[in-house]
Amino acid sequence: MNPPNERIDTKHAQYLAVLRKEQRIIRLWQTVLLVAFFAVWEAASRFHWVDPLLFSSPSAIAKLFVEKMSDHSLFAHTWATLLETLLGFFIGTAGGALIGALLWWFPRLAKTLDPYLVIFNAMPKVALGPILIVALGPGFTSIIAMGVVISIIITTIVVYSAFKEVDPNYLKVLRTFGATRYQCFKEAVLPASFPAIISTLKVNVGLAWVGVITGEFLVSKQGLGYLIIYGFQVFNFTLVLMSLLIVALLSTVMYQLVALIEKKWGNRR
Amino acid sequence: MFLVVDRLSHTYLTKTTAVTALDDVSLSVEKGEFVSFLGPSGCGKTTLLSIIAGLIEPTEGAVHIEGQPLWPSGTAAPVARRAVGYMLQQDYLFPWKTIEENILLGLKITNTLTADTKERALALLAEIGLAGVESYYPRQLSGGMRQRAALVRTLATDPKLLLLDEPFSALDQQTKLRLEELVWNTLRQYEKTAVLVTHDIEEAIAMSDRIFLFSPRPGRLVRTFVIPDELRCRPPLAARQHPSFPALFQSIWKEMEALESAQ
Ligand SMILES: Nc1ncnc2c1ncn2[C@@H]1O[C@H](COP(=O)(O)OP(=O)(O)OP(=O)(O)O)[C@@H](O)[C@H]1O
Ligand SMILES: [Mg+2]
């Protein structure tokens, strides 16, 4: 290795070290913020700066968590909500992408359905809740349906407009080889829209949780949404806040998984 | 005659206007010939290429390739269309595919991807000076390299007729001259018939056997220049340095100026 290269290598190593240091500082502050938040919360509750009945405290929540874990009830509630959310998320996303593809395939269908999509998208979907419960029964199915309804239309719209915006010159290249419509879709339209599809995944993680928690509010049988509404009714805010923390944790994990998918397949351009 | 364009007219219809892009264009190209379509922006060059490639159906007239009509889309049409390779104004390599996947795209689409054709395409890639970039993505290549890869993609399906739509216009001068040389040699070697669209007079003279000059609005064929033998048989760089090059440039330049003032 000759001297100039060595110099560049050490410069690069220094640069990386600076980056790593910056990263460590950020991580440190993030941890400090988290610990401080819980510490202040605990103190505020202990010394009655806030009403402990309304705002509970981290220690009370931890105690309740251990209690609920030992009688296995919490696990069942969490599992029910998670399953509903995952199903709502997958069905909503896949369904929306599928409808988006159909609209691309049949332009006349797209033009016909356009105003209805606008209406559906503008409507607050949670307002459909009572109707879903009447139609599908007060249970698992209608809660999943809430998760689906809330995410499917926006997915359809985003995916369809991504399909439409694909540079027509890519299609021109394919058509010079005599490609069929299916080949055009598979080789250009779908891969070119991949970033847009990933970004709807991210949005849908949030939407599926909104739909499912709202569904559980309405059905009131099982799940973290049920625990929240139940805790509210019996004035047990420790239960409400514990459920909320679990929801926050799970949705973050789900979001991070999607981000991982994006990192792996999303940035090949 | 290899390619015959017969009294071709094309009008683009939109909601608000009808734009006549081509008006009564007739020409023919012999097998193995290299011709250029020269003309200012908007004179219908891309439209004409798209029609010859079978991508749009003309309002009037016909195109025959080796005696087979391209339109109406009858039984003979697909065969005639498959004989055509089209290179767009930009490379349009697919950014989510590797270079290898990109150059094999045509073979895949036409269902002719075999070990044999694949090997040929990869050999062509190496021949054109791009050995070793098979697993790269297009963004990792320079503009000139990408345009070369696009040429390989077009040649991989072994088309009999090559349509080149200003393939060098987005490149810097040096890369452009090198690529002209490369394309000229490659097409000679494989005895391809080619149509080059350009608005660069020098490029048209250096590359082609004949030049068709078009006028804009509506696109009409106004003159055909036959390039003298001493320029034709020389590769582009050598042709540019030949003593008879400036005179020909002058006469085409004058013709284009006259067109402009007639507008
Ligand atoms: N899809 C289209 N719809 C309507 N008009 C079009 C369309 N494509 C081209 N035109 C019009 O037809 C005329 C010829 O266009 P064309 O693209 O064939 O010109 P060109 O010679 O290739 O120009 P350039 O040198 O800029 O590429 C122009 O007036 C253009 O506005
Ligand atoms: Mg053009």
Automatic annotation (TrEMBL), chain A:
Q: Does the keyword Chaperone apply?
A: no
* Record CDD domains: TM_PBP2 (cd06261)
Show where the ABC transmembrane type-1 domain sits: 78-258
Membrane topology per the record?
A: Multi-pass membrane protein
Instruction: Report the transmembrane regions from the record.
Output: 25-41, 86-106, 118-136, 143-163, 234-261
According to UniProt, the name of this protein is ABC transporter permease
One Pfam family, short name: BPD_transp_1
Q: Which domain of life is it from?
A: Bacteria
Keyword Oxidoreductase belongs to the record: no
Automatic annotation (TrEMBL), chain B:
Domain ABC transporter positions: 3-241
Q: Which CDD domains match?
A: ABC_NrtD_SsuB_transporters
Question: What Pfam families does the database record attribute to this sequence?
Answer: ABC_tran
Transport is among the record's keywords: yes
Q: Alphabetically list the UniProt keywords.
A: ATP-binding, Nucleotide-binding, Transport
Gene3D superfamilies from the UniProt entry? P-loop containing nucleotide triphosphate hydrolases
Question: What's the protein here called?
Answer: ABC transporter ATP-binding protein
Which superkingdom does the taxonomy of this entry point to? Answer: Bacteria
